[in-house]
Amino acid sequence: MGILNVTPDSFSDGGTYFSCEKAVECALRMEAEGADLIDIGGESTRPHAPAVSATEELDRVIPVFEALRGKIQIPLSIDTTKSLVAREAVAAGAEVINDVSAFEWDQELLSVVRESQAGYILMHAQGNPSTMQLNPHYADVVQEIYDFLKNKLENVERAGVSPESVVIDVGFGFGKTMEHHLTLLKHLRRFTELNRPILLGVSRKSFLRQLVGAAFVESGTTAAHLLGSRQGVSLWRTHDIATAFAARKVLGVCS
Fold it and tell me: Burial, 91: exposed, middle or buried (Cβ in 10 Å; 0-12, 13-18, 19+)?
């Protein structure tokens, strides 16, 4: 899954693809490099990021979806926590809704998933962008996130959404300390017990920068991807498709 942030302030590439033209160029390049899916977002969810209105978010992302229609062959995803944005993005061509809030910030989002029959990525977060990294705390990070996702999957099914359309994400960078991140990386296999594909979103995350240094964050990302795949991860969400594609090729040859 290629990351395409149509924002001025995302933590890694804010402003780089803020214009529609540059965003379209990036999407087509990622497709050529081997992406299977591209995730388009119009609001940064980095720690302490300011909130963006639905109108502004739509103004950022909808032109990109519309410009890519007929030009790109792989599916597109909308990275949003707002039901209005998700609904309009699906109408403009999004086939997947990537929701970092697990529909806790907008209960109507689940209705959009059900009505549109879009794929749905369900992620764990402790707190919101303004609070999530202030003092993350868990008695047992693996068990608590497992229970959270299990409960959310049950809610999704009760709401009439097919479980087969759902991917789960433990939420690296969203209310976790370095210790929590490393514990989750070691125990990703536990989440395969939920019988849903797992998305791994560690690309260029700050805990990897702290662990290996900014100059080697791509190497750290690749190592985490490979470690995740050995534990049953199905999907890598990444800024660097070319590197991820090469790593996947080696993994496939050696598996």
Answer: exposed
